[in-house]
Amino acid sequence: MGILQRLSLLIRSNLNDAISRGENPEKILNQVLADMREQLARAKQEVAVAIADERKLKAQVEEEKKQADEWEQRAILAVREGRDDLARQALVRQQEHAERAASLEETWQRQAAETEKLKAALRDLNDKIEEAKRKKNLLIAKQKRAQAQKRIHETMAGLSDRSAFETFERMAEKIEESERRALAAAEVSETLSGDTLEREFARLQGQDAVEQRLAALKQRIGLPAGPAARPAALPGGANAGQPGDPPRLRPAGVEEGETRDAELEEG
């Protein structure tokens, strides 16, 4: 497992553990960023070690190639001097160094390719961490807005629940009913146990007070304060008629006295 795979696995493990514990999202994000920064620092160290190893292999390859060249030059010198025996030994050494150089170069090439991948992945991871840091505040703002909306919905749900209000109204009705019954019982007790004569005088006094208020009202609007005027009774005689009869009309141009004289002659 590569270093970046281990880093990703560790971050996901820490994140899932924090979520399973039901921690605050803001706290989780801060913790994840802290883990990212810590693991990034470790990844940088390991990538640095890989780069150092790659450079070491490259130096070894160059050294082996250098040794092979030097032994080849010695073999040439030995041949020029007529020392074929030394030339053979020098060629054997040259071959050994050349083979080691070829083997090390193959390993170095693979190491260099992997190191480049590590460096590219490390740059990508660093960019993602920087992006996560920039997004953290936005995510926290969204989370707080979601919490506020949740609280509003919960409050609205509580306000739409009428059970508490209905209970209050029932209790208020019971209390008012109890008050009405108590007043009625007190009135019954007063009726049965009170002095009738006292109540009669109290009633008369109450009527006097009403008459006084009526007189004051008439005086305020400019009417006489006495009792209301009643229609005057008609004078007696034939013109008066019997109770309930319609009034008799006299002919036009006849005076009241003449009408009476005619009535007496008819009589």
When the domains are counted, the total is 2
Number of helices: 6
What's the main sheet like? Answer: none
Based on helices, strands and strand pairing, what is the structural class? mainly alpha
Shape: rod-shaped
β content, as a range? Answer: under 5%
What features would you describe in this structure?
The chain is mostly helical and 267 residues long. The chain folds into two domains: 3-160; 163-220, no CATH class. Helix content is 82%, strand content 0%. The protein is built from six helices and no strands. Helix 2 (25-80) packs antiparallel against helix 3. The longest helix has 77 residues, at 84-160. The chain starts with a helix and ends with a helix.
Give me a quick take on this structure.
The chain has 267 residues and is mainly α. Helix content is 82%, strand content 0%.
